[in-house]
Predict the structure.
Amino acid sequence: MQAFAQEQAPAAVISANGAGMPSDPDAKPVRRLSWVTDEGKSYLIPLGEIISYELLLNQYDRNFIDRSVYGTTPSTISHNFSHGWVVDTDPFATNQFLHPYGGSVYNGLARSAGLNYWEALGYTAAGSLLWEEAGETGAPSINDQITTTFAGSFLGEPLFRMANLLLEGGDGHPGIWRELGAAALSPSTGFNRLMFGERFSTIFPSRDPAYFSRLSLGVTLNSDVSSNINLNANVTPDEPSAQQTLKRTQAAGDFSFSYGLPGKPGYTYDRPFDYFNFEFSAVSANLFENILIRGLLYGTSYESGDNYRGIWGLYGSYDYIAPQIYRVSSTAASLGTTGELWLSRKVALQGTALGGMGYGAAGTIHGSGERNYHYGLTPQALLSGRLTFGDRAQVELTGREYYVSGVASTEHRGAENILRGDATFTLRVYGRGALALKYVASKRDAHYPDLATTRQSVQTVSLFFTLLGDTGLGAVDWRNADAGGPAQPHEGEPAERLD
């Protein structure tokens, strides 16, 4: 703790003008973080922060949640260290969302203190291990260690990157609104910038990636559900069965962000998550309907001819999908590629193809007599394509499949196969404003030797007003850049020239 205090001391000598000069002539200059030379980075500060965060979280949980679960003692800690790991039975949202989000906090504390991605991954794993052994009275959980460490890293890094990209947009001197926005995206980053001032004020360099963002708000116009799940399976036989239903009309929101799109001249992929795709959807009936993240962990760019540019390599992904009647989540590593092909002067096709292995969970929602959810190794695949017509219209199609097997499961039996597809048509009407029509279809088939075969499907149609990140639709035109123009046709051009 003495060393930790010494790490913090320089921040206290910042002068009121914020220039980084000591107010006391005898005080040492501030060690300011440099992302180029690693000067000013700290291994001790995030270590102390993670331990402090877990101590505070444990105290809150034991006093306000459940003392029997969080009332740890030296005896419970010693017992956990000397006994084996288990797959726990906590609620699905706790294991598959709250643990990854907790891991993103550890990741953000380490990254914003100057550590690189792999170093931060180690801190996230250590933070998870400490909580599993000393934060709860129960046996340490292997599924929590996986989701907190890897899903937490796969979630935390895009949040850290987006927060710094927002700060970077202020020309290196972000105002209060950019600071607040960055803190909302990555609370850990905001905390370190506030607490340590000039020490960690240096913004992580994005290296000017090509990116595409959109925020959509709207309503589901039509929904359809098919399910053989009996909601009152344990009642008397003379009572009519109650099948699952779906709230058909509801408010909906989507946010998506693609970072490091391939094709921009001079942009490289030598850091993990120099390319990533982040998607989040919410509906009024089910707040977190899906969080879908994929990012390039290790790979390189390539090209073919004059009209195709791409990247390929090892991707990490974290998916969480819960469309009211069932849920599936997976943390995975996949091999694949992302690329862009210009079909004509104004028509571009962007796409991603991935195939890999994850550790996932899937199950029904609100089904009496049905198993809650099932863990297992999860082979999975993704195929996504986005066809862009100039700066006016876009069609996007994505298909995903997850096979949650009985391998590495506590039951070693049964399996679930889940298919999900979506199609979106976007029409830019004026400036950055657009209208979008989205169709989503999901299907789940679950097979267990002692349970009836489960079949569920859900389809929704939604209408959105969409705010685009700029007046373009995300196509990267390296041909224009080679001629001396911007890498994306919309960069630096007023909307009226695009009409």
Notes: The chain has eleven helices and twelve strands. Residues 384 and 398 are 4 Å apart (CA to CA). Residues 1-23, 367-371, 489-499 have pLDDT under 50 and may be disordered.
